[in-house]
From TrEMBL:
Organism of derivation: Arthrobacter bambusae
Taxonomic path: Bacteria, Bacillati, Actinomycetota, Actinomycetes, Micrococcales
SUPFAM superfamilies xref list: C-terminal domain of RNA polymerase alpha subunit (SSF47789)
Protein known as: DNA repair protein RadC
Span list, region Disordered: 1-20
Length: 72
């Protein structure tokens, strides 16, 4: 499936993401899956509000959009 965004580099976070996870990402300035990939899996998993379900949702959305962590 193609990216859900009309603009490359602006793939939105998944809609079903829990509020605590959305707040944690917003606090870090993360609004797109591309920004999430730049920050890296290690840092994301340490954020308060990011549980295993939210991380799985984000990883599924990234995979669906063809985005992967850049190693940060």
């Amino acid at each position: 499936m193609a990216s859900k965004s009309n603009w490359p580099g602006h793939t939105p976070l998944p809609k079903g993401l829990a509020a605590p996870a959305r707040r944690a990402l917003a606090h870090e300035g993360i609004e797109t899956l591309e920004q999430l990939a730049e920050v890296g899996e290690a840092k994301i998993s340490k954020l308060h509000g990011m549980g295993p379900v939210a991380i799985a949702q984000l990883e599924d959305a990234m995979e669906e959009s063809g985005i992967s962590y850049s190693g940060g």
